[in-house]
């Protein structure tokens, strides 16, 4: 039995259905992420788990017990907000101890568990500091320590890294993974940042307009998206409109207008005449000089329209002869000059026959 079971929940605000018949299971010890654009319903689900909001339809179960009649303060759940929500007049130790005081714990237990929580987030020397004396990353750690000090069954994290700068955010991602692994508490994480979700999560539910588009492990979401929305939302992808000419267990033969035939991986549901799009990641595309050939199955000519140097890679945007714009990555592993192709250069774009996934919706 899953730790948290969500069964057909719907939440309406007037005529707006913010969450539409959502069902999912979250296993004990998982780092589970609700991912999607603003307004897709992910925070509304988090609020219903916490008890701050109630579904209009459906049920939520924790350890097999219905949550409907349990008020927020009695649920074994804690929420960490993007704003941290620290009490400015309390020290770091005071903020962390607050949930234990509200639960009526003894003074000795409060002192012991507050010390353990401080050590867990590596802030042993900041117990007497006040929130205004801390950096953004330190405040985030205090909020996490306060969320974990009562040993909740679920820790809910609502965009907890959103207020941090890029470098600190990346460092905190690593700390979150290590912390979740160490304490073993189930994390339910809400974010709109795709790379963050891929880096942190055991499983991800990608949401769109109140529904779950796909629920899977990060690798499957990235490599085998089930819809155009998921393909386009998770990372960067090239979508090439095409029609299936032939389909068998070995692969697909597609026709792309103005390009010609494309070889693609097999798809069980594909039949001749089906229209859709081949979704191919930029890192699967190889770029070479126009006169050069890498020798891959799919090869087309185009012109470099833009190049973006990003240190480890250079991103090339290539306009194919039929007008289609594709994005390709070239690694900058070698010493010296990184940009091998200039804007306006004629180039060859190629990719393997087993790269990408054909999407019919």
Automatic annotation (TrEMBL):
PROSITE patterns in alphabetical order: ABC_TRANSPORTER_1 (PS00211), ABC_TRANSPORTER_2 (PS50893)
Domain (ABC transporter) spans: 4-234
Question: What GO biological process terms are annotated to this protein in UniProt?
Answer: putrescine transport
Arranged from A to Z, the UniProt key words for this protein are: ATP-binding, Cell membrane, Membrane, Nucleotide-binding, Translocase, Transport
An annotated Gene Ontology molecular function: ABC-type polyamine transporter activity
Sequence similarity: Belongs to the ABC transporter superfamily. Spermidine/putrescine importer (TC 3.A.1.11.1) family.
Full protein name = Spermidine/putrescine import ATP-binding protein PotA
* Origin organism lineage: Bacteria, Pseudomonadati, Pseudomonadota, Betaproteobacteria, Rhodocyclales
Q: Which gene encodes it?
A: potA
């Amino acid at each position: 039995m899953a730790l948290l079971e969500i069964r057909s929940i719907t939440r309406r605000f007037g005529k707006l259905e913010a969450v539409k018949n959502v069902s999912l299971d979250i296993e004990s010890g998982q780092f589970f992420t609700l991912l999607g654009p603003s307004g897709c319903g992910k925070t509304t689900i988090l609020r219903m788990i916490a008890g701050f909001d109630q579904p209009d339809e459906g049920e939520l179960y924790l350890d097999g017990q219905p949550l409907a009649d349990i008020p927020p303060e009695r649920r074994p759940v804690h929420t960490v907000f993007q704003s941290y929500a620290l009490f400015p007049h309390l020290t770091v130790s005071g903020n962390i101890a607050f949930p234990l005081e509200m639960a009526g714990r003894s003074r000795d237990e409060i002192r012991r568990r507050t010390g353990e929580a401080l050590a867990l987030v590596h802030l042993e020397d900041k117990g007497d500091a006040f929130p205004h004396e801390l950096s953004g990353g330190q405040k985030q750690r205090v909020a996490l320590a306060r969320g974990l000090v009562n040993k909740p069954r679920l820790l809910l994290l609502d965009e907890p890294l959103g207020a941090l700068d890029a470098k600190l955010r990346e460092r905190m991602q690593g700390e979150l993974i290590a912390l979740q692994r160490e304490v073993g508490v189930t994390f339910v994480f809400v974010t709109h940042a795709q790379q963050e979700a891929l880096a942190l999560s055991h499983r991800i539910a990608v949401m769109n307009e109140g529904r779950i588009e796909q629920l899977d492990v990060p690798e499957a979401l990235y490599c085998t998206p089930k819809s155009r929305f998921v393909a386009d939302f998770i990372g960067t992808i090239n979508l090439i409109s095409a029609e299936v000419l032939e389909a068998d267990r070995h692969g697909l033969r597609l026709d792309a207008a103005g390009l010609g035939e494309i070889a693609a991986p097999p798809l069980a549901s594909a039949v001749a005449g089906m229209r859709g799009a081949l979704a191919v990641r930029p890192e699967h595309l190889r770029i070479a000089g126009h006169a050069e050939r890498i020798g891959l199955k799919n090869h087309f000519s185009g012109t470099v329209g833009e190049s973006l140097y990003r240190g480890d890679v250079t991103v090339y945007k290539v306009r194919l002869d039929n007008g289609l714009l594709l994005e390709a990555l070239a690694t900058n592993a070698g010493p010296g000059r990184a940009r091998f192709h200039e804007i306006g250069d004629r180039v060859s774009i190629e990719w393997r026959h087993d790269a990408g996934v054909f999407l019919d919706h």
